[in-house]
């Protein structure tokens, strides 16, 4: 369960990713001296994750409870950013260690363990490869604590947020042509219908707390 206890950090499923080709780890570049040792392929892959994160969030965070975890102040990422040491970023790039070229990777921190791994891995790989295909440029690293930034500072930095609830996530997923391409029309439409029914049931549900509150008023 992504958020089993109120007021306590939730349960994440951080996914480490590093595609390989015939030459080895496609993310490693010995000539990248910015402290990342990331190849152009690696940077575009991360840019793909960042660009399409709101669209695939319904898959990697598929339940109502998933969005109880994705809230500021509980270590789970809310803002679509990347960094090396910043724990508030959605994508983290572990520091390179000499002789550990095969370990060059990116860590996506937004998914949770409620996700269907087959669908989740498919969309993560799909958007990363799309970033490479589109030659996306990687946005600047987030070096400060994003949770402490104001709305104005976030807007000036071009930092977006992940969907605030399952309803918003479903809408973005349904409109995404890339998600249809990655998962196929059949799976995409079935997933949307299933999640819409789940969201509608949740929205219509009246909790015992609400019932008690209104009865006490009467």
Description of the structure:
The chain has 218 residues and is α+β, with helices and mostly antiparallel strands. The chain has helices at 40-60, 66-69, 117-134, 151-157, 166-175, 177-183, 185-204, 208-217, and strands at 15-17, 20-21, 24-25, 79-83, 89-92, 106-108. The strands form two sheets. A four-stranded mixed sheet has the order 1-6-5-4, with helices on one face. A two-stranded antiparallel ribbon has the order 2-3.
Fold topology:
Blueprint: E1 15-17, E2 20-21, E3 24-25, H1 40-60, H2 66-69, E4 79-83, E5 89-92, E6 106-108, H3 117-134, H4 151-157, H5 166-175, H6 177-183, H7 185-204, H8 208-217
Structure summary:
The protein has eight helices and six strands; from the N terminus they run E-E-E-H-H-E-E-E-H-H-H-H-H-H.
Largest sheet: 4 strands, mixed
> Considering the protein shown, what is the CATH homologous superfamily?
Glutamine synthetase/guanido kinase, catalytic domain
Distance N to C terminus: 36 Å
Order of helices and strands: EEEHHEEEHHHHHH
CATH class: Alpha Beta
Low-pLDDT residue intervals, each spanning 5 or more residues: none
For the biggest β-sheet, the strand order reads 1-6-5-4
Q: What fraction, in percent, of the residue positions are helical?
A: 40-55%
Mean pLDDT: 88
CATH architectural grouping: 2-Layer Sandwich
Integer-rounded radius of gyration: 19 Å
* Shape type: globular
Task: Indicate how many domains the architecture comprises.
Answer: 1
In terms of quaternary structure, the protein is: single chain
CATH topology, anyone?
Creatine Kinase, Chain A, domain 2
């Amino acid at each position: 369960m992504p958020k089993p206890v109120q007021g306590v950090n939730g349960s994440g499923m951080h996914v480490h990713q590093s595609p390989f080709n015939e030459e080895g780890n496609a993310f490693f570049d010995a000539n990248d001296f910015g402290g990342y040792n990331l190849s152009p392929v690696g940077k575009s892959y991360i840019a793909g994750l960042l660009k399409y994160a709101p669209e695939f969030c319904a898959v990697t965070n598929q339940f109502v409870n998933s969005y109880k975890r994705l809230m500021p102040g509980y270590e789970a990422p809310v803002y679509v950013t990347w960094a090396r040491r910043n724990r508030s970023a959605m994508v983290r790039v572990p520091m390179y260690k000499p002789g550990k070229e095969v370990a060059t990777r990116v860590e996506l921190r937004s998914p949770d363990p409620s996700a269907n791994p087959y669908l989740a891995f498919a969309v993560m790989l799909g958007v990363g490869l799309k970033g490479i295909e589109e030659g996306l440029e990687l946005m600047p690293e987030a070096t400060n604590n994003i949770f402490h930034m104001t709305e104005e500072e976030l807007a000036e930095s071009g930092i977006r947020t992940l969907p605030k609830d399952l309803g918003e996530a479903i809408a973005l997923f349904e409109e995404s042509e890339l998600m249809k391409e990655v998962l196929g029309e059949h799976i995409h439409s079935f997933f949307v219908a299933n999640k819409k029914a789940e969201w509608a049931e949740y929205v219509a549900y009246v909790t015992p707390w609400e019932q008690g509150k209104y009865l006490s008023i009467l």
